[in-house]
């Protein structure tokens, strides 16, 4: 009898359990970064705890960078197979804003809290007033100093305010330690693009016209050239770019005294250059103060928002409203953006959390850098000095050309002068 | 009754046998070919596709196209120059001497073609890194040479790397082709030649090579196809963006235009032109080898 009632009880529970399981709405998500997926998964758990009536079953997949963008583009073009939510890297985003846009507008969620966001980072993913993506981070450009080398050379990094200070300090580092002050990328754009942006310029204007060979851009590229060949404080990056195995090894062994990269590059130090723990310090970028070293460029911009991943919801999603809400929960709410810093070490999009107490709590990033809990004070100092970046129209092709033509020809094999390299590339892109 | 005999008839059976080929040919070759032809005349955007005449073909001929064609052509020539004599020679060696030891060597030569290209790429990138401490450069240092920047050094270094990876990957596969060709040569021919007093060199040039000709023609043909469709050997070093386009191949260009820049129309037109080029080259090569000549003439 007891056995029978137990069986009956179990049978009675099964339909209930099934109803519960069915109540979980499946949401598919694509990304090209393992760490992003881990973040979304942790947020899905939080969401499910907070929203018992709107359970989510997040099905995330990580693909290699190129594969993911290709798959997404083809599935949107063919109209089938796309996920509900997808990460899209900023330099690829323009590809997805062509034709009938297959992404959902996020304005209904963003507009009410728009003022709390760093505006230039919202504008990246907008077309005709509609926002199609939401970023993880500002990607504020900062200078990472290897303070061990700087101190050995007698350089006080807090006294470096302008590019002419930086060059003087660099010459001192080279003279005292024999090590270069910095490395400059020759096969990617992360050394050049933030600098031209901080100099008040861009590669494409607001009307999507190519301005790659503008006067300012030529001057900035000449300045990079001078750092390597005239002042001899920089070397072309070993391995060509700052994400190469060659560079990680070089820098980890104390190869150079500094590097300018966006805030999100912090994770590369913790993951790939672990021996630098306790030696690195984060400081604001040197400024363009009109000095002859920077060809008289004077600019009010104190940093640049670089790189990024605009996460978008696909218009044909069967659970459009829920997908949008979940995306905003992860990346747009105050609680979500604090989690982005805690878990990913990114500088969040909402500046209203930068001063928050939660940002000073120790984590693996604050432990790694000197005076790590004060990292956001650096950001608060430069908060009002972000230039916008235009990433529409032909942007993916322009960045490609900067990567494989301009940088290499002007700085590495020196087959062209900076001016020639930019003029040739721009002429080709205008065709 | 009637249908059963119909199915057993000689008229139908051949078609049943070639059906799998026909189906896969139509699904994976003919249909994409027709689709690509249409797409090459279109501007393709999500939800908006329209015909633009010859615009894709007009825009296609750029310095990048010339560069890609030249890289692919050079690569094909070098791989043919290396990947036919070397494996043929090795196959001849492996076909003689101690059998047991040979199967060990055969396996050793074949293993690279089974290794994932991505894994191999990472290892090659590290081996050929610019630093003086990388494997290849430290070996060069022993010979008294300065470290060479292989990956970013320039056009010849880039070509050397791509050809090297190809030789590493495909030598084993070509050995298999040549081995099967060699084993089809009747042993009594060699015996007869030996009795007639032919030395090893004479036997190689008068028996082995002439009778290997069908295999050589076959391997040359697939090497032309393989050379012009090369993509991975370049991709593993530069991920599609090589300085000055030293590693840009035709298929790399199609990939760049179609997928990285989202312009499937122009990618289709490049694909079709590439197909015509390869077709013409393969036909010319087969004609040169006398493939179309009738045996009885």
Plain-language structure description:
The complex is a heterodimer of chains A (431) and B (297). Chain A has helices spanning 2-22, 34-50, 65-78, 90-93, 107-110, 119-123, 147-152, 163-177, 193-198, 215-229, 245-252, 266-272, 320-331, 334-344, 364-368, 375-382, 395-412, 418-430, and strands at residues 25-31, 56-62, 85-89, 126-127, 130-131, 141-146, 182-184, 234-236, 258-262, 280-283, 303-304, 309-313, 386-387. With 431 residues, chain A is of the alpha/beta class. Chain B has helices at 2-8, 13-39, 55-60, 63-83, 85-94, 99-110, 117-127, 135-142, 155-183, 187-195, 200-228, 232-238, 250-260, 264-288; strands spanning 42-45, 48-51. In chain B, strand 1 (42-45) and strand 2 form a beta hairpin. Chain B starts with a helix and ends in a 9-residue tail after the last helix. Classes of the chains: A alpha/beta (431), B mainly alpha (297). Chain A binds chain B through residues 66, 69-70, 73-74, 76-77, 79, 92, 95-96, 98-102, 186-188, 238-240, 245-246, 249-250, 396-397, 400, 403-405, 407-409, 412-413, 415, 428, 431, and chain B through 44-48, 59, 62-63, 122, 125-126, 129-131, 151-152, 154, 238-245, 256, 259-262, 264.
Give the low-pLDDT segments of chain B.
none
Low-confidence runs of at least 5 consecutive residues of chain A: 15-20
Molecular shape of chain A: globular
CATH homologous superfamily assignment of the largest domain in chain B: MetI-like
Assess the beta-strand content of chain A as a share of residues: 5-15%
Q: N-to-C terminal Cα separation of chain B, in Å?
A: 49 Å
**Structural class assignment of chain B:** mainly alpha
User: Level of helix content of chain A?
Assistant: 40-55%
Radius of gyration of chain A: 24 Å
Shape of chain B: flat
Biggest sheet features of chain A: 4 strands, mixed
CATH top-level class of the largest domain in chain B = Mainly Alpha
Q: Tell me the CATH architecture of the largest domain in chain B.
A: Orthogonal Bundle
Provide the residue-averaged pLDDT of chain A. 90
Q: DSSP strand (E) fraction of chain B?
A: under 5%
Please give the order of strands in the largest beta sheet of chain B.
Answer: 1-2
CATH topology of the largest domain in chain B: MetI-like fold
């Amino acid at each position: 009898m007891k056995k029978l009632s137990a069986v009956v009880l179990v049978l009675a529970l099964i339909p209930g359990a099934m109803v519960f399981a069915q109540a979980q709405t499946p949401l598919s998500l694509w990304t090209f970064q393992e760490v992003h997926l881990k973040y979304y998964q942790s947020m899905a758990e939080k969401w499910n705890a907070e929203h018992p009536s709107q359970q989510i079953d997040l099905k995330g997949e990580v693909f290699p960078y190129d594969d993911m963008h290709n798959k997404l583009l083809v599935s949107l073009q063919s109209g089938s197979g796309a996920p509900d939510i997808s990460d899209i890297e900023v330099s690829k985003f323009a590809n997805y804003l062509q034709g009938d846009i297959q992404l959902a507008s996020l304005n209904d969620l963003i507009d009410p809290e728009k003022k709390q966001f760093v505006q230039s980072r919202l504008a990246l993913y907008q077309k005709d007033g509609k926002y199609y993506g939401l970023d993880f981070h500002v990607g504020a450009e900062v200078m990472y100093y290897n303070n061990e080398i700087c101190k050995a050379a007698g350089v006080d990094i807090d006294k470096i305010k302008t590019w002419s200070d930086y060059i003087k300090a660099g010459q001192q580092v080279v003279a005292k330690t024999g090590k270069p002050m910095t490395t400059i990328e020759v096969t990617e754009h992360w050394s050049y693009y933030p600098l031209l942006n901080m100099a008040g310029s861009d590669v494409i204007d607001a009307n999507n016209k190519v301005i790659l060979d503008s006067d300012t851009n030529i001057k900035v590229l000449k300045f990079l050239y001078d750092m390597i060949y005239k002042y001899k404080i920089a070397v072309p990056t070993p391995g060509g770019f700052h994400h190469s195995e060659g560079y990680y090894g070089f820098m980890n062994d104390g190869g150079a005294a500094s590097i300018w990269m966006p805030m999100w590059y912090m994770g590369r130090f913790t993951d790939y250059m672990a021996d630098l723990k306790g030696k690195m310090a984060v400081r604001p970028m040197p400024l363009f103060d009109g000095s002859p070293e920077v060809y008289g460029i004077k600019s009010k911009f104190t940093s640049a928002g670089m790189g990024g991943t605009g996460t978008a919801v696909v218009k044909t999603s069967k659970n459009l409203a829920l997908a949008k809400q979940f995306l905003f929960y992860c990346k747009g709410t105050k609680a979500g953006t604090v989690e982005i810093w805690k878990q990913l070490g990114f500088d969040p999009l909402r500046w209203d959390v930068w001063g928050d107490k939660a940002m000073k709590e120790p984590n693996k990033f604050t432990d790694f850098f000197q005076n790590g809990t004060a990292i956001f004070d650096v950001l608060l100092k430069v908060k009002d000095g972000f230039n916008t970046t235009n990433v529409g129209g032909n942007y993916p092709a322009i960045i490609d050309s900067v990567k494989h033509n301009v940088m290499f020809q002007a700085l590495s094999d020196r087959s062209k002068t900076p001016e020639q390299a930019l003029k040739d590339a721009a002429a080709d892109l205008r065709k | 009754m009637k249908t059963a005999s119909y199915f057993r008839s000689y008229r139908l059976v051949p078609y049943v046998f070639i059906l799998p080929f026909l189906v896969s040919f139509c699904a994976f070759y003919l249909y994409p070919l027709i689709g690509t032809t249409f797409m090459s005349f279109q501007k393709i955007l999500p939800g908006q596709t329209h015909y633009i005449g010859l615009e894709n073909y007009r825009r296609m001929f750029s310095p990048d196209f010339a560069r890609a064609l030249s890289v692919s052509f050079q690569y094909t020539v070098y791989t043919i120059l290396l990947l036919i004599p070397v494996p043929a020679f090795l196959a001849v060696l492996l076909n003689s001497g101690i059998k047991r030891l040979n199967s060990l060597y055969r396996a050793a030569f074949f293993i690279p073609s089974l290794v994932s290209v991505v894994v191999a790429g990472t290892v090659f990138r590290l081996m050929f890194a610019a630093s003086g401490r990388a494997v290849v450069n430290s070996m060069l240092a022993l010979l008294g040479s300065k470290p060479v920047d292989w990956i970013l050094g320039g056009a010849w270094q880039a070509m050397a790397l791509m050809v090297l990876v190809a030789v590493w990957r495909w030598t084993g596969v070509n050995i298999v082709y040549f081995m099967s060709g060699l084993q089809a040569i009747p042993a009594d021919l060699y015996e007869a030649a030996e009795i007639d007093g032919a030395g090893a060199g004479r036997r190689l040039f008068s028996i082995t090579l002439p009778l290997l000709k069908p295999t050589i023609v076959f391997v040359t043909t697939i090497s032309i196809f393989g050379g012009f469709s090369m993509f991975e050997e370049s991709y593993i070093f530069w991920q599609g963006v090589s300085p000055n386009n030293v590693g840009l191949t035709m298929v790399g260009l199609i990939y760049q235009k179609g997928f990285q820049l989202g312009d499937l129309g122009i990618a289709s037109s490049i694909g079709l032109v590439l197909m015509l080029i390869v077709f013409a080259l393969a036909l010319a090569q087969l004609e040169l080898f006398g493939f179309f000549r009738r045996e009885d003439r």
